[in-house]
Amino acid sequence: MDTTTTTMPTTTTTTTTTTAKLTTGRRLVLLPSPFQGHLNPMLQLANILHSKGFSITILHTLFNSPNPTNYPHFIFVPIPASGEEKHSFSDMGNVISFMHYININLLGPIHECLERLMSENGGVACFITDAHWFGTQSVADCLKLPRIVHRTSNISSFRAFAVPQLLRDMGCFRRSPDEGLISSLECLY
To answer: Which residues participate in catalysis according to the annotation?
Structure first.
């Protein structure tokens, strides 16, 4: 892919920095989940894609937003109204509430941001989201924008997704209200 970039030497070292605004590669919009274990892998993916000639735009919440000075070769676009509420994650219920909040309340602002980005020069080639942003599929469908889901899970959590089906197959969960309650979970050992 042919790209045009300009490099500028930094004042303290001999490394160079590429300015995002001068990259002419096709634009990819990435939407990471605002949790550290999700932000870092998404930004690593963005670096890889940028090295292949893509122009990168990071759409992000105001809550735990990435530091743009660490990635001067990307364009950062905050989602409007994504930091108005205070979020505390002292228990799992708050994390689930936050996931509900971002997948319900932020779909409109995300749609507007993507619509604006699509109307700019070159548009948007693809929308890459974290798996936590499951509600964004409807936005991508509405805008006829290809979407790729980036999952940041380790093998332990991946295996945990299989457990409910395994327990159901072993008879530890009832399949219908008519089956009654299971008196014990002896099948777990």
So the answer is: 38, 130
